[in-house]
Amino acid sequence: MSIKSENKQKELFETDIERLVKADHPLRKLLKAVDFEELSCPLRFLWSDAGRGGYSPPQVLKILVLQFMEDLSDRTLERHLEENNVAKYFCGFGLLDETPDHTSFTRMRSRVGLKRLADIFNRVRDSMKRAGIIREVFTFVDASSIKSRVDTWTARDKVLEEAQKSQDNEDPPSLNNTNMSQYSSDPDARFGCKGKSKFWIGYKRNLSVDMSSGMINKVSITRANVTDQKAVKDVLPNQGMVFGDKAYCLKEAQIAMKQHNCHSGAILKNNMKDKNFKKDAWLTSVRMPFEGTFATIPKVTRFRGLMKNKFSGVLQAFCFNLKRYIKITDVPLVLVQA
């Protein structure tokens, strides 16, 4: 290699990585909109200043945001950080800095934990409320399936094998929610049903979406066999009108809405006395645009266990709100006190 080529290569390596990122790139906008240094304050005590240097709390938070914002597996994220200059810039790495390997991300998620992540999500949500972005005047609630990657037939074979050993069993054996935890590779997963034809094994995502901004207000992850009307109490706003499908017109959901000072906008079942088809058609048309929120979030989980899927669900909602925020405004978000 000539001296001229070596000098050019050296100049490239010494170039500020910020110059390699487009001015209008979404991740650059996100760094301007959200103060990750301040937002990651609750994570500071998790890393010691003594010993070998590691990754700072803001870096850890941004790495997790990048992973779920781009829907990357741990190994794909490792390669993404190695090869993508925008990813390095967003996460605070230089061109020649060593980036974490895939085993580091599991430790990061474990150390941050669900409680601290939920506090960060709530802080950003409360900041948006104070800024008038989330208003809780009209709210859309719904639930969607999260499919677990389990080998159902292997679990079924285990049930049959045990049934053959037990000669007393007269009824044909079946894999169901009562014995799922004994035979499935994901013990927390359960059979779920929506309508009369949609079945899955895994979990259920319950969301409330603020209809003035399209932001996710609250999120709750449950096992798939938990009914919508039972889970809705965890995602209801503190006021306003709540729009929902027929699952939320049942007694348990209606009681929960009253306890949260909410007015019900749920569609009634066809056999109900107060059913008004024109009104329910209008309610359906109003909430329809916000059903797209569920389409943007992955329907299949990479994680096993309820706690890991709760962590994943909160982080997915957090990333959705961040992406939504930089689309609707370019004003930096002023964070409320932690």
Structural summary, described in words:
The protein is α/β, with parallel strands linked by helices. It has two domains: 12-130 and 305-338, no CATH class; 134-150 and 185-304, Nucleotidyltransferase, domain 5. It has 14 helices and seven strands. The chain has helices spanning 3-13, 26-33, 36-39, 57-70, 74-83, 85-91, 102-130, 152-165, 180-183, 228-231, 251-259, 277-287, 292-295, 306-328, and strands at 138-148, 190-194, 198-210, 216-223, 241-244, 263-266, 300-301. Strands 1, 2, 3, 4, 5, 6 and 7 form a seven-stranded mixed sheet that branches. α2 crosses α14 (306-328). The longest helix is centred in the middle third of the chain and has 29 residues, at 102-130.
Summarize the structure.
The protein has 338 residues and is an alpha/beta fold. The chain has helices at 3-13, 26-33, 36-39, 57-70, 74-83, 85-91, 102-130, 152-165, 180-183, 228-231, 251-259, 277-287, 292-295, 306-328, and strands at residues 138-148, 190-194, 198-210, 216-223, 241-244, 263-266, 300-301. Helix 4 (57-70) packs across helix 14, helix 5 (74-83) crosses helix 7 and helix 7 crosses helix 14.
What is the gyration radius calculated from CA atoms? 24 Å
Number of helices: 14
Helix content: 40-55%
What's the N-to-C terminus distance? 55 Å
Mean pLDDT score: 89
Largest sheet: 7 strands, mixed
Question: How many structural domains does the protein architecture include?
Answer: 2
Order of helices and strands: HHHHHHHEHHEEEHEHEHHEH
Strand tally: 7
Question: Into which percentage range does the β-strand content fall?
Answer: 5-15%
Spatial shape: flat
